[in-house]
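re the bet — no i am not wrong, look at it urself. input seq straight from the record:
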Amino acid sequence: MLDLSWVRSQFPGLGHTTDVLLDNAGGSQISQSAISGINDFLTQCNVQLGADYGTSKEAVKRVTQAQSAISTWLNAKQSEEVIVGASSTWLTRMLSLQLMKTWQPGDEVIITDVDHEANRSCWLDLQDQGIVIKHWRVNTETHELEISELNKLLCDKTRLVCCTHVSNIYGHINPIADWAEVVHNHGADICVDGVAYAPHRLLDVQALGVDYYFFSFYKTFGPHQAVLYGKHENLQRLPGINHRFIKDTPYRFQPGNVNYELICGIHGAIRYLLTLGRHHNNGHSSLRENLNLAYNAIADYEQQLIEPLIEFLYTHKDIRIIGDTVADKNQRVATVSFIHKTLSSQDVAQQANQQGLGIRYGDFYAVALIDTLGLRNQHGVVRVSLAHYNSPEEVSRLIEVLHKL
């Protein structure tokens, strides 16, 4: 069992609110170790990198260690494959503009109607430059993106397929490795949104076979920053957006360099997960092994946490779960969306909010999915997104309030 008392003690924000925080897919709590990483850099070595005096060397050491830790977290082949930036939306926009310079009018990009707009809008805007956008549409009965439909869209002009590892509405884990194989067999690349996946499962970009992968750290127990992974050979072909004389990767894609204190905060979030793995399994020697142990504990606990909620929603005659109706950790993460037969999603969420329950309603920037499902007039869905620091008592309180509503 997860040591919940220890876990909650690692998140100081939980002690400064009376609300039950069940909107973690919108932004997780930040761990104390991430806060300490930011504070320590600012108070101990807040200078520019690259000089020969001791404080600057210490700053270089900390930023370099953080970059290496992020690379290990992703299981990238090398740290040069990891670009850190202000947000996932910014990083995908930057990527789209760079790739555009290597494509020709008539080249094709496939996007889905399930994705967050971060992995849609930047590609749709390339239509003005002659890029053809094709739409991989979800089966509204099964709520799945089917490979058979993807195969119909792929052709020799396909340059990129953009999809999500986990929908921030459905919570379903998509078979990215299978999709990547299909895409590569057609000579195209794949760009995956991992924002809703990274807080719940350990990443392995090599095993997934992806060409580009991005997610946000402020939803993964760290500060407001994001990461974009790109295969080294792919990034080497892109022109970059930094000063013309800068040739190094990833610096070519990080104008002004990374935010030093925030990347140290990211390192702190990774240290939290490392400590979580050690705390629950008596420790292992490598960072990667401890991350694996931590995420296994998270997956097991979150399945137990979400089971009673899904059971309540599934058996309630006036409620319909949008997506999977199971709690199986192999199929979904601890994010579940639903609608009510007569109450709007706005009504349900706001009444729950008045009872101190932090849940949300809307489209969560999965604009196309809500429109495809015909839920715009419903004010979208009600979404409950749990994290491993939530308690069974908090879930029981939510169920009690929903039952009364």
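see?? Residues 211 and 234 are 8 Å apart (CA to CA). told u. also The mean pLDDT is 97. so pay up
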